[in-house]
Amino acid sequence: MDILKRSSGIWASELVSNLDKMCDNLESTLSNSSSASYLFPLQQFLFTFLTKTLSGADPSVDAKIADGGYLMFDRWLALQLLPTVPIGILQPLEEIFLHSFAYPFFLVSGDYNNLYNFIKQHGKEVVNRGKLEFGLTEEESIHNLLFVLGFNAFGGFSVFLPSLIDAIATDTTGLQRKLAKEARENGGSTLTLNSVKDMPLINSVVYEVLRLNPPVPLQYARARKDFTLSSHDSAFRVTKGELLCGYQKLVMRDPLVFQEPESFFFFFWFPTVSPNPTGQRLIRRGTELHLRVCRWPMGCCMHKAGFEPPTLT
């Protein structure tokens, strides 16, 4: 959070600058071909943008990092996620050969060391802040920074943004036009974080995509004490030390909380009662279902009027 706060002044400008470069590259590809994939250009944009804003290091000063840094993160993330992520091959072969053991670090040690040395050399200001203000060693500061940068930021956005783009691109109700209109009317001459706060439809679309497709669907933790975990109609006794797994989609697509939980309603989080962006009243969902709980750690939320969420005792 300290890093985010300190870098907030350059987020908007770096975002626009690097997005412009990504769009120019895509247009250049399209001028020579009938189609272009946006996934790798998107990841390269994310890597450059997030590395500059979170670590203060500019990838352009190192050609190897500038060209392949995002692929280094991809391989490092894949090694950590493969034991838990379903890839759709014939069961039980997937569980036996892919999900039964941790993979050795040496497979990606070269990539990780390249990123480590880059941050050590070019992200000194942020690394020193970790040492002076938080009592970390240099090694701990760099490892923590790489985890936040690679896993939380780069990894999360690499999963979430394609879902967001797909939701907007496949909409048939004119959502793209409505989003463009709102952005042009409220964006001002220069994009800022404050101007984004004045774009309720854009915020609503982002929240609804997070609800349907959380970037990190599985979360694990060990109970620190004995407690009772309550659901809508049951209670489960959990003892200290037990391993718990939380599946975000069970929460965010709960039919007892959300009406038509599998459907994408881009106006769901829109703050007005009537009319909403579709020209219809918010009858099934919307603001007459006032917000009781809205939690976004890894995209977790619950929302329903009159519903008291389960408590841990």
Automatic annotation (TrEMBL):
InterPro entries associated with the record: Cyt_P450, Cyt_P450_E_grp-IV, Cyt_P450_sf
Keywords from the named record: Iron, Metal-binding
GO biological process entries: sterol metabolic process
Pfam families: p450 (PF00067)
This protein's record includes keyword Iron: yes
Keyword Nucleotide-binding: no
Residue ranges crossing the lipid bilayer per the database entry: none
Cross-referenced PANTHER family: CYTOCHROME P450 26, INACTIVE LINOLENATE HYDROPEROXIDE LYASE-RELATED
Family: Belongs to the cytochrome P450 family.
Name of this protein: Allene oxide synthase
Species lineage: Eukaryota, Viridiplantae, Streptophyta, Embryophyta, Tracheophyta
